[in-house]
Write a structure and sequence with these properties.
Layout lengths: L3 E6 L4 E6 L4 E10 L5 H5 L7 E5 L23 E3 L16 H7 L4 E3 L3 H11 L2 E7 L8 H11 L9 H4 L5 E3 L20 E7 L4 H8 L3 E7 L4 H6 L4 E4 L10 H10 L6 E4 L1 H9 L4 E17 L5 E12 L8 E7 L5 E6 L4 E4 L14 H13 L1
Helix pairs in contact: 8-9
The structure holds glutamine.
The site of glutamine has 11 residues, from strand 14.
């Protein structure tokens, strides 16, 4: 039997649909992602913490879910909004239906929503705080008012430090590199000793760890608040700064630690939140974007070669090119809106990328950046 669900936005917009996940209520920032595939990777990407994700591709759930295509151990998104859930899920790897998967992780979802109308609102007005009510919560008089109230009670992502919330509690080792080679793969596994990379976990996606491991790196993943002194004491070949949710600006513990690491000659590579944190630690500023970039076909230009790459993206904040100090150079720019996509320090072996070279989901045009990091570590050794 169909259970009702309501999606409400802070601007007063209301959508009625069908509950496809758990019953109850949830709130967060509502964003849209235009990728045609990869709903499992998107749901489990820790960077979506406190965000309700709308998928613009209309048929979601066709291939069901499996235990492999995940970027973390749980669903991170605060909720899922889709147009149509197919009656049947079918794939040789299908282990569960998408709706059962949402329920088993106690995550709310709403289907039968006019996601084109919703996306137009988000594009015109910017990402909105919103709420989903599902099941009994969405029934009866006052349900719409309640949904609007829950939406407006969400404080918004600006100023929210979530990296330390989703980070691992204790350090762990990672060496699994299967299925992750990507383009431009530099096989360094023949080297006598693997490169030891300490990876700051601000909400790291597993495919980043896999892609580093597949390039001959032995990883120690450390909690977001690990002081630089502890990282340096591990005597790594390089330091990696992970992706992660929330606003980079309040992550003062990370900015301080990265600043200290930048006082050494260690190679540093950052992705997404890690890129924004490298910018902040180098003295630049970050801004909240109108609706951000969430998709798998975003053109980004390498400013040195002129080459255009099709990239995977998921961010709502950005390092501000106008604030880059003299020792930081812009290396990549978005061809959608001209925003900054990559930087490098001119005085240190440190660089970072705003989009997702690890894809998952998405194209792997930017995978050679992992090789660049390995080459830097090789040069230093
Ligand atoms: N994927 C990420 O690391 C996202 C970074 C940051 N939370 C943002 O929204 O911009």
């Amino acid at each position: 039997m169909n259970r009702p669900a309501i999606l409400a936005l802070e601007d007063g917009s209301v959508f009625h649909g069908t509950a496809i996940g758990a019953d109850g209520q949830t709130s967060g920032e509502v964003v849209f992602n235009t990728a045609m595939t990869g709903y499992q990777e998107i749901l489990t990407d820790p960077s979506y913490t406190r965000q309700i994700v709308t998928l613009t591709y209309p048929h979601i759930g066709n291939t069901g879910v499996n235990a492999e295509d995940v970027e973390s151990g749980a669903i991170a998104a605060a909720g899922l909004v889709i147009r149509d859930l197919p009656l049947m899920a079918s794939s040789f790897r299908c282990e569960q239906r998408l709706d059962d998967y949402l329920k088993s992780h106690n995550v709310l979802g709403i289907a039968d929503v006019d996601t084109r109308r919703l996306t137009r609102i988000l594009r015109d007005k910017g990402a909105q705080n919103g709420a989903i009510l599902a099941g009994a919560e969405a029934e009866g008089e006052g349900a719409v008012e309640r949904a609007l109230q829950v939406a407006r009670d969400f404080p918004g992502l600006k100023g929210m430090d979530l990296a330390k919330e989703v980070s691992c509690q204790a350090a762990y080792e990672w060496s699994d590199g299967e299925w992750a080679l990507g383009a431009g793969y530099a096989d360094t596994r023949g080297d006598e000793r693997p490169f030891h990379v300490v990876a700051y976990d601000y909400g790291v996606k597993r495919n980043i760890l896999r892609m580093l491991a597949s390039r001959g790196c032995r990883l120690t993943v450390v909690p977001a608040q690990t002081p630089a002194s502890e990282v340096l004491a591990m005597n790594p070949d390089g330091v990696f700064l992970a992706n992660g949710p929330g606003d980079p600006e309040p992550c003062d513990y990370a900015i301080t630690a990265i600043r200290e690491i930048l006082e050494t000659e260690l190679p540093v590579f950052g992705i997404c939140l890690g890129h924004q944190l490298l910018a902040l630690a180098s003295g630049a500023g970050t801004v909240k974007m109108k609706f951000g970039h969430h998709g798998a076909n975003h053109p980004v230009q390498d400013l040195d070669s002129g080459q255009v790459m099709i990239t995977s993206q998921n961010h709502g904040f950005a390092a501000d090119e106008a604030t880059l100090p003299a020792n930081v150079r812009a290396t990549h720019r978005s061809l959608f809106d001209g925003s900054l996509q990559g930087i490098e320090r001119t005085d240190r072996p440190a660089f970072s990328f705003q989009g997702h070279p690890e894809a998952s989901p998405g194209p792997r045009d930017v995978a050679p950046l992992f090789d660049r990091f390995v080459t830097m570590m090789k040069a230093r050794r």
